[in-house]
Design brief:
332 residues; alpha/beta; Spore Coat Polysaccharide Biosynthesis Protein SpsA, Chain A; nine-stranded mixed β-sheet; three-stranded mixed β-sheet; 14 strands; 33% helix
């Protein structure tokens, strides 16, 4: 039995445009102490896992290889997706590439986590539960009434229910109750257990993923076969249906770095300049003044500039999607 850190790195990071592009998504931006989030993920979990398995896409697998090389991680495998088919299939590919008894520690590549004692304790407990045959998720104790995350309702390590992203009022109720946790998108289980549950609850995803994986050449999946796989998240396909689910309530510092609001908060803690009204500039040293603005970000790259209110950070995705529909090179 091996323990494998399965790093999911197929995302584009559209909410961090214009920093994040299809050719260099947010997990490969070296803006976190001169490291990328992908590097930090691989290094952070190397103490728990025997090897790394990267599930990425055809546009970024070379970036993953480069980051692993810089991190001096030589023992790794990869599955290269021809097109995005969501997390249920991505994790199935990793499970098919492993032995049934192997412990898979599934982590997104774009999270920022303090690798301290609390993190280590949570991961060790997840491994114990996975060895016993459970499908384990990590629930983060919420620090604020966040509306951008899904929630897990739990009693101890027993999951009662998964909840979609809530309204502000509902999020405040979740926070007060004390038994709701942010859904971190991190999981731990035996490869064979996951495949059994996927086959039981979503046989179409299971079968189509198996066909595509078995036809892969050097770990690279075929486009036409991949398009036959239903695109569905692991939460909907397995987590919300399986009776084997457990949660590890966790209190380690975690951020999904999913928006400029997260970037703003992290950079501010790191000492990045912020003016008296809470305005921040990212990407340029040009002297900038904000007049009549509060909690505003100005983000500049060589070919684009974005100005936004911090509380509108989730809407950046709409700009990315519009530019993509228009065929703009600014998303590439």
């Amino acid at each position: 039995m091996k323990s494998i850190n399965v790093i999911l790195s197929g995302g584009v990071g559209s909410r961090l445009w214009p920093l994040s592009r299809k050719s260099r998504p947010k997990q490969y931006l070296p803006i976190f102490d001169s490291q990328t989030l992908f590097q930090k993920t691989a290094v952070r979990n190397s103490k728990f896992c025997d090897s790394v398995l990267v599930v990425g896409n055809k546009d970024n697998y070379l970036l993953s290889r480069n980051d692993l090389e810089k991190s001096k991680i030589e023992s790794y495998f990869e599955v290269v997706e021809a097109c995005p088919r969501n997390t249920a299939a991505a994790i199935a590919f990793a499970a098919f590439a492993s032995n049934p008894e192997d412990i898979l520690f599934i982590t997104p590549s774009d999270h920022l986590i303090d690798s301290d004692g609390q993190y280590e304790s949570a991961v060790r407990r997840a491994f114990e539960l996975a060895t016993e045959g459970s499908i384990v998720t990590f629930g983060l104790k919420p620090s604020r009434p966040e509306t951008g995350f899904g929630y897990i309702e739990a009693f101890g390590e027993n999951v009662k229910r998964f909840h979609e992203k809530p309204s502000q009022e509902t999020a405040e109720e979740f926070l007060k109750s004390g038994n709701f946790y942010w859904n971190s998108g991190m999981f731990c289980f035996q490869a064979g257990v996951y495949l059994e549950e996927l086959k039981a609850f979503d046989p179409e995803v299971y079968s189509a993923s198996k066909i595509a994986f078995e036809a892969a050449s050097d770990g690279k999946l075929d486009f036409d076969l991949s398009m036959q796989i239903p695109s569905i998240s692991v939460d909907y396909a397995v987590m919300e249906k399986t009776k084997k689910i457990k949660v590890v309530p966790s209190e380690f510092n975690w951020s999904d770095m999913g928006s400029f609001e997260s970037i703003y908060d992290h950079f501010k803690v790191q000492g990045h300049p912020v003016d008296s009204e809470g305005n921040m500039v990212i990407g340029t040293d040009i002297h900038t003044e904000f007049l009549g603005m509060k909690d505003t970000l100005l983000i500049q790259t060589s070919d684009a500039m974005l100005v936004l209110q911090k509380d509108k950070a989730q809407d950046v995705k709409k700009i990315f999607e519009r530019l993509e529909r228009e065929g703009s090179e600014l998303v590439d």
